[in-house]
Amino acid sequence: MTKQIVEMTVNGETREVMVEPRELLIYVLREQLRLTGPHVGCETSHCGACTVEINGKSVKSCTMFAVQAQGAEITTIEGLGSPDGLHVLQESFKEHHGLQCGYCTPGMITRAHRLLQENPNPTEEEVRFGMAGNICRCTGYQNIVKSILSAAAEINSASEAAQ
Amino acid sequence: MIPPSFEYHRPTDVAGALAVLAEHGDDARVLAGGHSLIPMMKLRMADVPHLIDLQDVAALKGIDISGDQITIGAMTTQHELIASDALHAAAPIIREAALQIADPQVRYMGTIGGNVANGDPGNDMPGLMQCLDARFTLEGADGTRTVAARSFYEAAYMTDRDDEEILTHISFAAPRGGYAYEKQKRKIGDYATAACAALIERDGDKVAAASVAMTNLSDIPVFSEAAAAALVGSACDDAAVKAAVGAALEDIDPTEDNRGPVEFKMHVAGIIISRAIQRAWSRA
């Protein structure tokens, strides 16, 4: 099957890739664009390790073909922070021990980022419900929830201070 | 998991999508949110040589509420259904049910059209649409027709939709009275072990009208006329609820699977139907 060009904006940059229609977005991100933050976990739409943000939605990139992303704006964990400038959520996960093995963490943080965009001041229950599409086998979720609540409080107090 | 090769089509209107369907027949399938079809393609249980992505067909999106008539475009996502305050005001049972479907990521992509058209007995919207007595609009080469949700489903994954038709819209009258969508599932993201939609209208102390439909308890969704009949005219007391549950259980035919044996499913269904009726009555 012939390859086709897909153009998308990834972490603020226009990127072009040549793909077969059957190629899943997660593999194109990881293998062609070398964005290895989003992970392949279950590959069956359950675990959320491959979560990226596409046009303002949290999406499991194992359940989308790259051709569907033609024209889309995509943010991966690499677009949220860098080793020298961690995102508030990344700082908070580090501070509150929101990870152990770290495999689910990029998906967790990318999903949490969108959750806080839509609900800047969530309750613990809303965090748990909003994060239900991401599975972690290490932490028991307790510290993930704590990390997200703490990041929300920090973002809110920073935006109050700015006003 | 990589599916076999296919050709990707991305029309911008319904006519363009129908043209691809007409050309390739059952070698072509439309793609809505993709969260049922893509997993099946990855498992190579669905072979789709021509995939028609509907994401650019603007005419299939949106929620229209005119008077008491609600029309929802097939490509409207579960997330959009949940987020719509106008829809919540007109038909709160939709948000209640949609929040119990899958998980947040899946709800951003999964659509109401895909959910009702796929014919998967585990999907929640078909039973809900039967409860609401919704109509599905199907568009094909020969024009448009509407089919009642209550007569659309034939068997698992088999519906009244022809291979060359697209389900474009879903419409129903805004429900009156109390409502409930009750679902028992093993974990977030799972299909129902048993689920039930109930709508009840009250006249004084009596039930004036009722509608009861169930999910994943047969190979198709089940609307139970007998359950509604057992409630109408009663005070929705314990005896009436018990009679309605008994009637509803007569109408289902669950099969044993990894959610449990038939006896267990009948037990869970009885509790879920009873809760749905009681909660709908409490809100009526």
Automatic annotation (TrEMBL), chain A:
<dbReference type="InterPro" id="IPR002888">
    <property type="entry name" value="2Fe-2S-bd"/>
</dbReference>
<dbReference type="Pfam" id="PF00111">
    <property type="entry name" value="Fer2"/>
</dbReference>
<keyword id="KW-0560">Oxidoreductase</keyword>
<keyword id="KW-0408">Iron</keyword>
<dbReference type="GO" id="GO:0046872">
    <property type="term" value="F:metal ion binding"/>
</dbReference>
<feature type="domain" description="2Fe-2S ferredoxin-type">
    <location>
        <begin position="4"/>
        <end position="80"/>
    </location>
</feature>
<keyword id="KW-0001">2Fe-2S</keyword>
<dbReference type="InterPro" id="IPR051452">
    <property type="entry name" value="Diverse_Oxidoreductases"/>
</dbReference>
<dbReference type="GO" id="GO:0016491">
    <property type="term" value="F:oxidoreductase activity"/>
</dbReference>
<keyword id="KW-0479">Metal-binding</keyword>
<dbReference type="GO" id="GO:0051537">
    <property type="term" value="F:2 iron, 2 sulfur cluster binding"/>
</dbReference>
<protein>
    <submittedName>
        <fullName>(2Fe-2S)-binding protein</fullName>
    </submittedName>
</protein>
<dbReference type="InterPro" id="IPR036884">
    <property type="entry name" value="2Fe-2S-bd_dom_sf"/>
</dbReference>
<dbReference type="InterPro" id="IPR036010">
    <property type="entry name" value="2Fe-2S_ferredoxin-like_sf"/>
</dbReference>
<dbReference type="InterPro" id="IPR001041">
    <property type="entry name" value="2Fe-2S_ferredoxin-type"/>
</dbReference>
<keyword id="KW-0411">Iron-sulfur</keyword>
<dbReference type="Pfam" id="PF01799">
    <property type="entry name" value="Fer2_2"/>
</dbReference>
<dbReference type="InterPro" id="IPR012675">
    <property type="entry name" value="Beta-grasp_dom_sf"/>
</dbReference>
TrEMBL record, chain B:
<keyword id="KW-0274">FAD</keyword>
<feature type="domain" description="FAD-binding PCMH-type">
    <location>
        <begin position="1"/>
        <end position="177"/>
    </location>
</feature>
<dbReference type="InterPro" id="IPR036318">
    <property type="entry name" value="FAD-bd_PCMH-like_sf"/>
</dbReference>
<dbReference type="GO" id="GO:0071949">
    <property type="term" value="F:FAD binding"/>
</dbReference>
<dbReference type="InterPro" id="IPR016166">
    <property type="entry name" value="FAD-bd_PCMH"/>
</dbReference>
<dbReference type="InterPro" id="IPR051312">
    <property type="entry name" value="Diverse_Substr_Oxidored"/>
</dbReference>
<dbReference type="InterPro" id="IPR005107">
    <property type="entry name" value="CO_DH_flav_C"/>
</dbReference>
<dbReference type="InterPro" id="IPR036683">
    <property type="entry name" value="CO_DH_flav_C_dom_sf"/>
</dbReference>
<keyword id="KW-0285">Flavoprotein</keyword>
<dbReference type="GO" id="GO:0016491">
    <property type="term" value="F:oxidoreductase activity"/>
</dbReference>
<protein>
    <submittedName>
        <fullName>Xanthine dehydrogenase family protein subunit M</fullName>
    </submittedName>
</protein>
<dbReference type="InterPro" id="IPR002346">
    <property type="entry name" value="Mopterin_DH_FAD-bd"/>
</dbReference>
<dbReference type="InterPro" id="IPR016167">
    <property type="entry name" value="FAD-bd_PCMH_sub1"/>
</dbReference>
<dbReference type="Pfam" id="PF00941">
    <property type="entry name" value="FAD_binding_5"/>
</dbReference>
<dbReference type="InterPro" id="IPR016169">
    <property type="entry name" value="FAD-bd_PCMH_sub2"/>
</dbReference>
<keyword id="KW-0560">Oxidoreductase</keyword>
<dbReference type="Pfam" id="PF03450">
    <property type="entry name" value="CO_deh_flav_C"/>
</dbReference>
